[in-house]
Inverse folding.
């Protein structure tokens, strides 16, 4: 059984069942059955093969949330093409790096987004592909694949600044989907409201895959918009919802009566991608009548640890390792730390990526080999996150070994912005740190050593052209010099504090 076989339980096994509601381009809500999705993706698969895309080829997805994203994803899974999702907020500098690294046969995008692609990139618009595919036969397409075949390459930056492509195999995704169905009791009776971007594994690997594997009904929204949340929840009446903490902070703005009405129809709210503040969890329970279930995952490992569905969903904790996932908290010498002590989180299991695309050195740095009690060597993935385990097994994350900033659930790696700022005229040194923010968790701020004339507006403009909007420093603080220790390492906690005016 591979990933597509799990999805076939619905695409074929529940062919007549209503599967997906979305806002049709012509307006109104269109509903598709699993059988219709099966035929649509078969047609696209045949078209891709006609256009020379076969097993092992990469295909860039530079697409917003829309039903055709799912059609194309399924088509790739069926023929063994490798999906390369690209954050639609990315701009030429970020996209160019991904295309150079992954070397996709083509990028599939929309007319609007195509303007952000570097010139000369082979691309199709999803509308052209979908209309051309309509003439292809809709019967099944299946290519013999190994579960260890790459299904996707998901770009996630690293401390080095240039993003790395985490390879996710068919088996990684299959393991994750099965774990979530079992542990979060997701069934075909659920109604899943999808608001997270499909270019990230939270929306794709958790949301879409749990929907396809369970055969539940999904309403696909283009994105989360607080102003439309009430209408979405009230019209679709979901039982299942995945969000990042920023989304839950926004949902708390709802009037109490409406929140209670929505909560009465809901079965499960799940949070991840960033730490969920305990006060948000408590306020949410008071308002919606549900205790949010917090879990911990990464693009490189999908889901690792989750609070239990039954039993205590402990505020501030991410719960216990998922079935088949091994988690260890280790010190600098790779020895396990004691209960309550802080160690780095290491993960091993069928959910863990085999490594980074064409980056053997980055892969080597991210895995350690440990001899298990039977004397066998095992590869353990270094998450870069710090954690501690209580005596009863609950794991609590407590910071990061790296300087990662998570803003609204989006990952920001300071080095990428620091290197760019230091390329700007007049900027001698730059450091970017996250500052706490009620709504987004953290916001990026830059401290710079700059020559006269110091023009922060110009810096912001340059960043806006180069990066996704969520990465742009909210302020550029000029300092005489950056505080460094005896080894020359920047001591970020000695930077002059910045608070939003
Ligand atoms: C945000 N923007 C978007 C989207 N989201 N544009 C198009 N499609 C989107 N889905 C734009 C906003 O308009 C804004 O643009 C800019 O991005 C920053 O948005 P933000 O300031 O964050 O505010 P927002 O618009 O209210 O969005 C809040 C949000 C969004 C809905 C929480 O940040 C979001 O969808 N975050 C989820 C990210 C995610 O899926 N993370 C999972 C990564 P402008 O500045 O031009 O106005 S995977 C992961 O972390 C691991 C695997 C795990 O464990 O899950």
């Amino acid at each position: 059984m591979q990933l597509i076989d799990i999805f076939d339980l619905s695409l074929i096994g529940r062919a007549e069942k209503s599967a997906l509601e979305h806002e049709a381009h012509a307006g109104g809500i269109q509903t598709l059955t699993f059988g219709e999705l099966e035929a649509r993706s078969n047609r696209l698969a045949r078209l891709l093969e006609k256009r020379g895309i076969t097993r092992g080829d990469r295909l860039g997805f530079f697409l917003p949330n829309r039903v055709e994203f799912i059609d194309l994803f399924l088509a790739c899974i069926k023929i063994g093409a490798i999906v390369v999702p690209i954050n639609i907020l990315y701009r030429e500098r970020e996209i160019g790096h991904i295309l150079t690294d992954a070397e996709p046969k083509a990028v599939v995008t929309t007319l609007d987004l195509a303007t952000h692609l570097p010139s000369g990139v082979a691309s199709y618009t999803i509308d052209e592909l979908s209309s051309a595919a309509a003439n292809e036969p809709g019967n099944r397409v299946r290519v013999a694949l190994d579960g260890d075949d790459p299904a996707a390459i998901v770009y996630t930056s690293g401390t080095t600044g240039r993003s790395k492509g985490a390879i996710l195999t068919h088996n990684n995704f299959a393991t994750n989907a099965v774990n979530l169905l079992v542990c979060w009791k997701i069934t075909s009776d659920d109604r899943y409201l999808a608001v997270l971007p499909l270019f990230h594994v939270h929306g794709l690997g958790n949301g879409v895959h749990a929907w396809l594997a369970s055969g539940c009904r999904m309403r696909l929204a283009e994105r989360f918009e607080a102003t439309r949340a009430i209408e979405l929840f009230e019209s679709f009446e979901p039982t299942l919802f995945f969000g990042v903490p920023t989304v839950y902070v926004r949902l708390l703005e709802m009037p109490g009566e409406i929140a209670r009405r929505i909560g009465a129809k809901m079965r499960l709210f799940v949070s991840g991608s960033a730490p969920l503040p305990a006060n948000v969890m408590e306020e949410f329970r008071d308002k919606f009548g549900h205790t949010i279930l917090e879990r911990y995952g990464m693009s490189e490992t999908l889901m690792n640890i989750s609070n239990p569905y039954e039993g205590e969903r402990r505020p501030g904790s991410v719960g216990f390792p998922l079935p088949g996932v091994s988690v260890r908290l280790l010190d600098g010498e790779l020895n396990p730390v004691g209960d309550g002590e802080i160690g780095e989180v290491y993960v091993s299991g069928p959910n863990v990526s085999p490594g980074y695309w064409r980056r053997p050195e980055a892969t080597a740095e991210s895995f350690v080999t440990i001899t298990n009690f039977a004397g066998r060597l095992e590869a353990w993935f270094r998450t870069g996150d710090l954690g501690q385990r209580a005596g009863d097994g609950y794991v609590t994350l407590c910071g990061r070994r790296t300087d990662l900033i998570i803003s609204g659930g989006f990952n920001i790696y300071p080095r990428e912005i620091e290197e760019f700022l230091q390329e700007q005229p007049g900027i001698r040194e730059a450091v970017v740190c996250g500052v706490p923010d009620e709504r987004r968790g953290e916001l990026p701020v830059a401290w710079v050593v700059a020559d006269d004339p110091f023009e922060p507006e110009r810096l912001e403009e340059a960043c806006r052209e180069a990066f996704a909007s969520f990465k742009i420093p909210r302020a550029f603080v000029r300092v005489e010099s950056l505080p460094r220790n005896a080894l020359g390492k920047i001591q970020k906690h000695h930077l002059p504090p910045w608070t939003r005016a």
Remarks:
- Residues 88-89, 196-197, 200-203, 223-224, 244, 246-247, 272-273, 297-299, 408-410, 440, 469-470 surround methylmalonyl-coenzyme A (CB under 6 Å).
- The longest strand covers residues 377-389.
- Residues 367 and 381 are 5 Å apart (CA to CA).
- The mean pLDDT is 95.
